[in-house]
Here is the input.
Amino acid sequence: MRKLATTDALTNIANRRHIMDIGNREFTRARRYTHSLSVLMLDIDKFKFINDRWGHPVGDRVIKELANLLTITARDQDVSGRLGGEEFTVILPHTDTSGAKIIAERLRVVVAEAQGVNLDDNTIVRFTASIGIATLNVEDTSFDMLLQRADRALYKAKENGRNRVESDN
Here is the structure.
């Protein structure tokens, strides 16, 4: 029952509720012990085009592939989750902005260079991801605030051309 309550059914990674619980715990811990904490927000670039061109089942396969790439790229202490749709987050405990940028760029490259999703007719659907970074600062009063800053950085990455990493700093 716990797995059903905490896992996204499509991707088998943390669902929104679970990622928010973990994020709130990590936020509190980082504040209490003055540790660094960073968050990545990821979004599949031009996902609507993928769904419109090849249909929602292919879109689901792309979402699953991104979740798989997150899982194999993340460090053991990181927590990846699907917030909804094609939007994902990675919580990076004990990670400052420079470390988060290294991890985010590594992840961006892994996604961009991945083989993509193979369709039944041997068509390959490749995709990229834009990534926003936020690192805990003194103004943050909640994990949600940190996540919102990462989301703003994500939109900056999309506005600046997609398939890139942007930080709120």
Q: What stands out?
A: The first strand starts at residue 37 and ends at 44. The chain has six helices and seven strands. The CA atoms of residues 130 and 164 lie 5 Å apart. The chain has a mean pLDDT of 96.
